[in-house]
Amino acid sequence: MLAQNREIKFERLGLEHGLSQSTVYCILQDRQGFMWFGTQAGVNKFDGYKFTAYQEDVFDSTSLAQNVNNVMGEDHTGTLWFGSGNEAVVNRFEPATERFTRFKHDPNNPHSLSDGGVAVIFTDHTGTLWIGTSNGLNRFEREKEQFTRFLYDPKDSTSLHGYSVSAIYEDRSGTLWIGTGRWLNRFDRQTERFVHYTHVPQPSKAQPITVILEDHAERLLVGTDGTGLKEFDRETGQFTTFFYDSNSASSFGSNNIRSIHEDPFGTLWVATEEGLYQFDHKKEQFSRFLNDPKNPQSLSDNRVWSICEDISGTLWIGTFSGGVNKLDRGKEQFTAVAHEPDNPHSLSHNGVNSFYKDRAGTLWVGTAKGLNRLVRDTRQFAYFFPDPKNPHSLNNHVLAIQEDHLGMLWIGTFNGLNKFDPATKRFTHFVHAPNNPNSLSSNGVTVVYEGRNRVLWVGTDRGGLNRFDREKKQFTRFMPDPNNPYSIKTSTVWAMCEDSIASNVLWIGGAGVSRFDRNTERFTHFVNDPKDLSSLSYDYVASLLVDHRGTLWIGTAGGGLNRFDHKTEQFIHFTTEDGLCDNQICGISEDDYGRLWLGTANGLSCFDTEAKTFKNYDVLDGLASNESVFPGHYKSADGEMLFGSPNSGFTMFHPDSIKDNPFIPPVVITALKRYNTDDAEGTAIEEKGISAKKEV
User: Can 11-206+298-336 and 345-657 be said to share one CATH topology?
Assistant: First the structure.
């Protein structure tokens, strides 16, 4: 069956990054760790930072011969070989000198490369180099630097069957398989004879074998250009074909297979003319990845030609007109959830402000378009929208969600406070009444909080703090009073939390941070003092957290993270200079290991409070957006974390699943310069091949 596409994000590399041309026919990682890409405008080497292009120079016989590069390979010595489908020539590249040696077809030399364009380069387990052209198979005799040809002879049934060699593969038993047109050839090394199997019963055009692969279950898979993907049974000599069927959700999207790769998890990746496919054998499911013009992190082009997995586990995908796509599967640990215009059961709106998981395990999501309830079994959302005809429906823009000790949900919106009874599915509204001092102080409800003593506190936009009496259904207001130094300082409350050391203290975030003594009903204020480096770093406080040790952490909207010292009443600051991804913090959550996860205006930071170090994540790691929104963050009882965004949905993850790639890339010297400059006197000491040299 065809699974619903997972939201994975591709990083694109193209002309703007230095790639010489957008058609990427082939990809290879050499033993030093460099990535190589064959294009229509030469060969490109990528060192992780920049591209270096190697192109034909008609005045230099040691340059690349033929810019159109369709195939490449690395032999057992680390030497690279490049070939073009446009000419009977193969290029041998010496990394130490960065020069090419050309091996061309010579009609007068039977030991030269056979004629026709080069279609495949392969090195077997013995170190033997094999090259397939449009007119035969070539074995390179290294000592003599010449070729032994295996050509099609219609009069010899044991010869190679078919003129054009388009695929070469060695299975686990050491058997060499050769793809030629509609024929699969098995090569006997001892007799140097071939046994033939046809994947197309009747002669046909343009249906050659393009790729051969043996998977972890020892199934021999054959990709073709015209008749889809096939599995070859070596005992019966029969093929099972998986044709493209537009009426079947279980088929590939194209009969034109360009490349097949199996990753270490046993998952197949198939490059086709109609997108990239992933096949999970265990689940028997295909996932299809296509270009979405509206999504710059989708596959850049549907015509996929090449797949390569590097030693770190990153997949590199070459396309016909979209350059290179990079997929770091270690970055799939975050789940991005967004509104889908064509899906009536997706998130109602991409502006996500709040979350809450109730005692039944139901996740509630507050958006700019109503309240969403996630049905986990079906991964579908149910909605609660404003209904003018129903006085018991929800109000509009949902900013805050809180479940009380009675199981009631309290929902803050831009049009008042709402109590939702899950049993009756009815809403009760509490709004500001200008002539009633016991009504809600403002209709903009930004935060709702139930403390340990079961008192419900309501923070508002430009209405200060409210305490709600459930029995009387009345609010007590705490508003800024310039004549009272002990009144609340902020008129807009963005964050609220209880102190775990002093049980009578409630912390309020807004214009600075305030400590509220519930016994005396007095506020003590902490604000930024430019002359005092130990004061609060910034007066706009968007998030507060008391961690498991009782430490108060303050997220500011411009001054980074602050830690409050209860003894000295001073603040310690952590900013971008310390590794934080952005100084505007929108939300703080603590995981079960005591680490802080900080949603910011430019990425997600994980802060190790012991080591005082940050690890940062962004959309390339799988986040729905780099930009978080306050107060849109939440940690559930089971440890799952959620961060909302203003226009891209939300990100959900469990910190236990976020594992950094342990792979340490090799260190390679690519250049040495004098004086660390790029001027004439600072040119490279060694311009070419330094990465392959033991000394300079």
Answer: yes
pLDDT tens digits for 72-128?
999 999 999 999 999 999 999 988 899 999 999 999 999 999 999 999 999 999 999
CB 668 within 8 A of CB 32: yes
Domain boundaries, the chain: 11-206+298-336, 345-657, 666-696
Per CATH, the number for 11-206+298-336 is 2.130.10.10
Residues 276, 407: Cα–Cα separation, whole Å: 47
For the residues 270-289, what does the mean pLDDT come to? 83
* Residue 571 bridge partners (DSSP): 564
Q: Which conformational region is residue 407 in: left (phi greater than 0), alpha (psi within -120 to 50 degrees), or beta?
A: left
655: three-class secondary structure by DSSP: helix
Pairing mode, strands 209-214 and 220-224: antiparallel
Q: How confident is the model at residue 386 (pLDDT cuts 50, 70, 90)?
A: confident
What's the count of helices (H) and strands (E) in the chain, helices before strands?
Answer: 0, 58
113-160 pLDDT, tens per residue?
Answer: 999 999 999 999 999 999 999 999 999 999 999 999 999 999 999 999
C-alpha closest to that of 514 among 547, 477, 544, 534: 544
Gap between the Cα atoms of 636 and 333, Å rounded:
18
**Confidence band of 512 (pLDDT split at 50, 70, 90):** very high
Q: Indicate whether 231 pLDDT > 50.
A: yes
**119 and 132 Cβ atoms separated by less than 8 Å:** yes
The C-alpha atoms of residue 548 and residue 563 are separated, in whole angstroms, by: 14
Can you say how many angstroms the Cα of residue 387 is from the centroid of all Cα atoms in its chain? 39
The Cα–Cα gap between 262 and 268 comes to 4
- Mean pLDDT is lowest, of 319-333, 338-352, 588-602, for 319-333
Residue 616, C-beta contacts closer than 8 angstroms, at least 6 positions apart? 579, 580, 581, 603, 604, 605, 606
Please give the single-letter amino acid code of residue 31. R
| CATH 2.130.10.10 describes domain 345-657 | yes
Beta carbons of 288 and 251 less than 8 angstroms apart:
no
> What predicted TM-score, i.e. pTM, was given to this entire model?
0.65
